[in-house]
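pipeline/complex-builder :: batch 7 item 3
reading input block
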Amino acid sequence: MIVFLKNLKRRLEAALLRMKARREASRGFAYDKAQFLAHAGALHLDRKAAACAEIVMGYHVLEKGLTMPRRRLGFGKGAVLHLMNLIDSFERRFGTDEPPVRHAVSVLRAYRELHRDWPEPMKRLDAFLAARPDVPSALEPHVTREEFFSAKDAPFPAFAASRHVCRHFAGPIPRETLDAALALASTAPSACNRQHARVHVIDDPSLRERLFALQGGTRGFGADADKALVVTADLSAVRWGWERHDAYVNGGIFVMNLCYALHYHGIAHCILHWSVEPATDREAHRLLGIPENEAIAQVLACGMPPEEFDVAASPRRAPEEIVTWHGGTGK
Ligand SMILES: Cc1cc2nc3c(=O)[nH]c(=O)nc-3n(C[C@H](O)[C@H](O)[C@H](O)COP(=O)(O)O)c2cc1C
């Protein structure tokens, strides 16, 4: 009788914990949804920060184009027009002193300089640039492989500044080099050391091609990659409802460490978003045989880089633009 009551108590407690986690998750996701609908840039393009982010996306497309392997002149005419319209509209509403907007103009100038011998006139672009004579051309570095990885053993500030995505791949990654990078990546921290992250190495070219087709962000370079890495996070390691973001938080931290580890081992990598609709996510799980309890956090394309290549500059905001001190200034 006592054993029966003890078992019953345990089962009741477990059921109550499950109910609690379900309630927390429902409330948490409802809160996220309300916050997303109220503030996500996609729904509020009229706001300054959202308009600025749209311009960054617009110039990034061109910056990628400027540094892509097998770049063909005349690319991205629609993107140039779209970006000029976005900048015109932004400057009319919010002024001209936003650093990412100035960088967008400098990318347009780099595009024009690349097309200095282009036979067709670019009247609108020329007038646009002539009206902003103080903005110099963006510098998209051209580097040798040795230069790209030269800070491998440098102190962390130089090493971190040297890491960039690379969309140029020229050869297979030696197995032991990838193993060493993956082992190094596992030094990433995780909540209560639960180590949610898992890595699926996609070596089969046809699987990789189908994965990249589902992902949609590798046009012009994905076919050259030697491997795709799919970083997932095991939802089984999530212990209560309020941890609803933990798969992506822990997965994201792992991905950053993985990027540094790949760079340290001389492997070129390009991070790829996994912002896809549910049917695509399900299709990727099915295609790659990823267990359903693993949430896909991120995909990476990687390979050994060629002897020399272009890198997108991707300038960063200054610290004072992103840091807010609360309760003092530390001085
Ligand atoms: C979450 C995330 C998603 C990304 N998705 C893509 C992508 O789909 N295609 C791509 O070419 N680059 C992608 N990138 C690479 C970014 O464009 C790149 O990291 C950014 O411009 C900063 O440049 P850097 O990594 O060279 O410093 C992604 C990066 C992150 C962090």
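note: Residues 165 and 200 are 20 Å apart (CA to CA).
queue -> next item
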